[in-house]
Write a structure and sequence with these properties.
Elements (H helix, E strand, L loop, with lengths): L1 H11 L5 H32 L11 H32 L2 E3 L7 H15 L6 E3 L13 E9 L2 E8 L7 E3 L10 E5 H7 L9 E12 L13 H9 L7 E6 L5 H11 L6 E3 L35 H4 L4 H7 L2 E5 L5 H12 L3 E8 L8 H10 L3 E6 L7 H13 L3 E3 L6 E2 L2 E8 L5 E8 L11 E8 L2 H15 L11 E3 L3 H17 L5 E6 L5 H13 L2 E6 L16 E6 L4 E2 L3 E4 L6 E5 L5 H5 L1 E7 L3 H17 L4 E4 L5 E3 L11 H7 L8
Parallel strand pairs: 1-6, 8-9, 11-12, 12-13, 14-25, 17-22, 19-20, 20-21
Antiparallel strand pairs: 2-4, 3-4, 3-7, 5-6, 7-8, 10-17, 11-15, 15-16, 16-17, 18-25, 19-23, 21-26, 23-24, 24-25, 26-27
Helix pairs in contact: 1-2, 1-3, 2-3, 10-11, 14-15, 17-18
Length: 675
């Protein structure tokens, strides 16, 4: 919730172009949806089961849910206030999202034709009475409660707002570029014409509501003969999970709320009222539709990613990687070299095998056709597709089938574990006849779209030890293996927890012995209790610890005698900070690790993760002398976590320059990492 509050702050920040602020507001509401589908649903199940056990914070599930409810109410009020402010600002910039009453007669006539031609045919009014049971309402569906009168009685009906249509309906022709772009919410168009659905009856009221359901599906892998079919079946259950949240407007009568709660068979404590009347206050994640407007003046300036000098000439990528490691820092560095390596592997007749893990690929991935092309030239291709990547299951099922149909060897990983590691291995016969292996290891997904939005590292290398480790890991993932040791990489759940634990303990002992002792970690979340206790012990021994944690941090910094040597900062800006980085001073030797894992119990115990060393001198210098100092000095996007749990945004001191790490990485001429 605190992280989402920081996202909301970005929507209020006038540094960002106007439509980018709208984007942050849409992300805020989308995050809230996922929070209720996954995190809150688990707490509600505990409350329903009467679990009285307290968590590490000393609170029961009921106490946590009470705090969540209060925080949600405050945040939604603030978010709707932000939306009203953005509406006014958008209007001043010739983009207007207005109510029906503000439309001209010509606009109303145009919307009436739109309703008749495109909306009315797909609407299905569902009566609720003894002859018509309460209808099933799918997850994240926006609906209208319609109260009508006739035959001396009052009736109740539900109308679904079609998800197949744009939520924001343009009221004036797009061809008229001189006129402001004006929009009205689809549910208001439907409400204005609702009488068409109930001829002979009088409409007494139309009220929007929205349902969120539990979406944390649990797949019984050990009982499934066909994992792909099991996942495909189970994702349908998201439409039928119990209701974790019912969103309504403040003007919905209490009797209608009661009727909805009864019909949905839900806990009345899970009703969230916005307090605002009218339309256009629910499901505002769909404000993202405004980003499709051709208004470059209201968006971030396009960023052109950098291509490392060694690869910019378009020469033989295998030759370049065989001579040196190349570290990529996305999105500042292009993702194209990764795709180029895969494409080169697909087309090079000397390539004998390609092996890759796929977690979140995206809908229009150029990568899968490349892997299929590789199979076409008789290269052995094996792909591990993680079917259980939450909310990407359907995409991954589709890609898995396409790969299988093309003759690619497709596996789904290990039972009970998600494969979250980012690995690519290409085996090639060199001109002299020797076999050489080329590897890509990353902190982010093989997704060309998110590589332009998320900050991540990727390492291209032909290091024999790393290649040997990755080969052994693929054998473990695709076949039968009890591999427990690796030369350089740390693998969860095999030795990653032990490897991080030993390094933290080593820093602690170095501090006690008077040796240089320092740790810098960057990740999405820090939750694991053992890791937090180890960091507290290191702080008490005198280790200087700096943590860059974008999201959840369960460690409390700055407590006297416990964590006074620990500083925690969260960076929220244009790009999503997604790096996972671990630096250990190691008595002055310095050890830099990158990888796919956050320090969460699920990552360390229930996923296949890989953390790998960065040993190339130029790559290490780039991270240690440029990237980390810049991130830690940020005074624009950074918020410091205080001992009381609050985050306080940094502000540049008087006459001190602003340091926006993401802008510096975009604009600054970074030292070459391929010298």
């Amino acid at each position: 919730m605190s992280f989402n509050e920081r996202v909301l702050e970005e929507a209020l920040d006038e540094r960002h172009p106007l439509l980018e602020r709208v984007k942050f507001l849409a992300i805020f509401f989308n995050n809230l949806d996922e929070f209720f589908m996954i995190r809150v649903s688990a707490l509600q199940l505990q409350r329903k089961a009467g679990v009285a056990e307290v968590g590490p914070d000393g609170m029961t599930s009921t106490e946590v849910l009470d705090k969540v409810a209060a925080c949600t109410e405050a945040l939604v009020v603030a978010a709707l206030r932000c939306w009203r402010l953005l509406q006014e600002t958008l209007k001043a910039r010739r983009i207007e999202v207005c109510g029906y009453e503000a439309l001209t007669n010509a606009e109303k006539e145009r919307l009436e034709r739109y309703f008749d031609d495109e909306v009315f045919p797909i609407l299905t009014p569902l009566a609720v009475d003894p002859a018509h049971p309460f209808p099933h309402i799918s997850n994240l569906t926006l609906s209208l409660v319609v109260v009508i009168a006739g035959d001396g009685k009052e009736h109740f009906a539900r109308v679904k707002v079609p998800g197949s249509l744009a939520r924001l309906v343009r009221t004036n022709p797009e061809s008229n570029r001189r006129a402001p772009a004006r929009f009205v919410f689809l549910e208001e168009v439907i409400a204005h014409h609702i009488g068409r659905l109930f001829p002979g009856y009088v409409t007494r009221g139309v009220y929007p509501f929205r349902v969120t359901r539990d979406a944390d599906i649990e797949i019984q892998e050990d009982e499934a003969e066909d994992l792909l079919a099991a996942v495909e079946t189970d994702i349908e259950k998201r439409h039928f999970g119990f209701v974790t949240r019912l969103e309504v407007n403040g003007d919905m009568p209490a009797r209608l709320r009661t009727q909805l709660v009864s019909g949905l068979e839900m806990d009345p404590r899970n009703v969230v009222a916005s307090g605002k009347s009218g339309f256009g206050t629910l499901g505002l994640n769909q404000l993202m539709e405004l980003l499709s407007l051709e208004r470059r003046d209201l968006k971030d300036a396009p960023h052109t990613p950098h291509v490392p000098d060694a690869l910019a000439s378009g020469g033989d990528i295998f030759s370049v990687i065989s001579q040196r490691d190349i570290l990529l820092q996305h999105p500042y560095d292009s993702f194209a070299p990764v795709l180029s390596l895969i494409q080169a592997g697909a087309r090079d007749e000397s390539v004998l095998a390609i092996k890759q893990t796929l977690y979140r690929v995206g809908r229009n991935s150029p990568l899968v056709p490349m892997l299929i092309e590789a199979r076409d030239v008789d290269t052995q291709v094996a792909v591990l597709v993680e079917l259980k990547a939450r909310f990407d299951e359907s995409n991954n099922i589709e890609w898995a089938r396409r790969l299988e149909d093309a003759g690619v060897h497709v596996v789904y990983g290990l039972i009970g574990l998600k494969t979250h590691a980012k690995l690519l291995l290409i085996v090639r016969k060199e001109p002299g006849g020797a076999i050489r292996r080329y590897v890509h290891l990353g902190t982010g997904n093989y997704n060309a779209s998110t590589a332009r939005l998320y900050t991540d590292f990727g390492l291209l290398t032909a290091d024999p030890d790393l290649a040997s480790d990755v080969t052994d890991l693929f054998n473990l993932l695709t076949g039968y293996s009890k591999q427990q040791t690796f030369k350089k990489i740390l693998v969860a759940p095999i030795n990653l927890r032990e490897g991080i634990r030993d390094r933290i303990v080593r820093e602690t002992e170095n501090a006690r012995a008077g040796k240089p002792a320092r740790m810098i970690f960057q990740m999405n979340a820090l939750v694991d209790q053992e890791m937090i206790r180890l960091l507290y012990a290191a702080s008490q021994a005198g280790v200087q610890i700096e943590l860059i944690i974008r999201g959840i941090c369960c460690l409390v910094p700055g407590l006297k005698g416990i964590s006074e040597n620990i500083r925690v900062v969260s960076l929220v800006g244009r790009f999503l900070e997604h790096n996972r980085l671990f630096y250990f001073e190691s008595g002055g030797a310095g050890e830099l690790l990158l990888g796919s894992a956050d320090l969460m119990e699920r990552n360390l115990n229930r996923r296949v993760e890989v953390v790998f060393p960065v040993e190339d001198a130029a790559a290490r210098a780039h991270v240690l002398e440029f990237v980390l100092p810049t991130l830690l000095s940020d005074n624009v996007n950074a918020r410091d976590l205080r001992p009381d749990g609050s985050y306080v945004r940094r502000k540049p001191e008087a006459r001190k320059r602003k340091i926006d790490a993401q802008v510096i990485f975009m604009k600054g001429r970074r030292p070459s990492v391929a010298k």
